[in-house]
Amino acid sequence: KKNGKKRIRVYMDGCFDLMHYGHANALRQAKALGDELVVGVVSDEEIIANKGPPVLSMEERLALVSGLKWVDEVITNAPYEITEKFMDTLFNEHNIDYIIHGDDPCLLPDGTDAYALAKKAGRYKQIKRTEGVSSTDIVGRILSYVRVPEVSQDHNGSLCGEPHKESQSKGAHVSQFLPTSRRIVQFSNGKGPAPNARVVYIDGAFDLFHAGHVEILKSARQLGDFLLVGIHTDQIVSEHRGNPHPIMHLHERSLSVLACRYVDEVIIGAPWEVTTDMVPPKYSSFCATFLPVLCSWGSYACIDKTFDRQGNMLTAKLLIDIYLKYALATVFTLNHFK
Ligand code: CTP
Q1: Higher pLDDT, 276 or 334
Q2: Are residues 115 and 188 in the same domain?
Q3: I want to staple 258 with a disulfide (CB 3.0 to 4.6 A). Which of 31, 59, 145, 187 is the partner?
């Protein structure tokens, strides 16, 4: 209770596989329907039984959801269906007032509504689903770029694979997302750094925002008072990583980064190199020596490794070590930002 008024606690569940700004926007809207947002992350087993296997594991999905700035608490291994028993747990143990879901139908394998009981109990509220993005769409984008072996029959009649034949469907999945200034404002903190704040700058592609990104952003934020993240343009990313990177375009990547609780501000379309004119004069000779090295490392690590789970986490850990070691050089105040 605050000022004698009960705080409204809302619950939203989901798989949050390959978490994207549609999920972030759903949780942002859910949070606005109450004071505290509790998020249930559905277990791997329940997703397999209801939708088929997720790309990311429970731990990875949990790290992504916990990293969102609108999320207050998480419940791990949540069920897919809101059963009578689970509803009791939500109402009595977690003090939940409302259960929330997007306005798209969420059906169980038998065709019934997964939220039917919550609706019947009058404890259900709905938010608007975000158009133009879904986990299925992202998987589609990735698969449309994968080089698949073309299977053909040789003259002896046996099947032979011809590897590295580009998929025919390349380009079939184009982002449907239309960025608006309102959406960017909704995701923003709207506050600049305090007068003597230490502004930390980190740049990268942040493509297919994953648990490793959350970890590195957390570490970067701990080095100062205000975290500014530079997101490279699509052109810069594809120049350095080659086509088809990035999978998510600049505005999609920017919203994912902006939704992270450790991020204060983003530069939408940052230069590849951090130039000395971005830092105060007293650091400039030091930065002239170290920045090119740091930038190449930073950019290397932030252009992510998509689906190699172990690799993702390892890369992020390695990068954190590098950043911590060279913390001095990465913690500087950006001139143009003051
Ligand atoms: N959601 C949304 N907008 C999207 C995608 C999801 O508002 N573009 C909402 C869903 O309505 C749900 C929550 O995010 O309330 C979690 O969704 P999830 O269980 O992960 O699965 P889907 O609804 O199938 O979303 P996706 O296809 O992206 O996996």
Answers
A1: 276
A2: no
A3: 187
3-state helix, strand, coil split of the chain in percent (to 5) is 40, 20, 40
CATH number, residue 222 = 3.40.50.620
CB atoms within 10 A of CB 168: 10
Count of structural domains within the chain: 3
49 domain-assigned: yes
Ligand 1 pocket mutation pick from 15, 28, 31 by most atoms within 8 angstroms of CB: 15
Give the pLDDT confidence score for residue 279 in this predicted structure.
53
22 CB less than 6 Å from ligand 1? yes
**Angstrom distance (rounded) from CA 258 to CA 70:** 11
Nearest protein CA to atom 7 of ligand 1, as residue: 129
State the closest ligand 1 atom to the C-alpha of 136, by its place in the atom list counted from 1.
27
Atom of ligand 1 nearest to the CA of 129: 7
Backbone φ and ψ for 162, nearest 5 degrees, come out as -110, 100
Contact between 19 and 134 under an 8 Å Cβ cutoff? The reply is no
Q: Which of 157-161, 170-174, 294-298, 313-317 shows the lowest mean pLDDT across its residues? A: 313-317
pLDDT band with cut points at 50, 70 and 90 for residue 332? very low
Q: How far is the CA of 81 from the centre of ligand 1 (A)?
A: 15
Gap from CA of 225 to ligand 1 centroid (Å): 33
Looking at the chain, which runs of residues are DSSP E strands? 9-14, 36-42, 73-78, 98-102, 124-127, 147-153, 159-166, 199-204, 226-232, 265-270
Among 119-128, 209-218, 288-297, top mean pLDDT goes to: 119-128
Ligand 1 centroid – CA 106 distance (Å): 9
Determine the distance separating the centroid of ligand 1 and the alpha carbon of 16, expressed in angstroms.
7
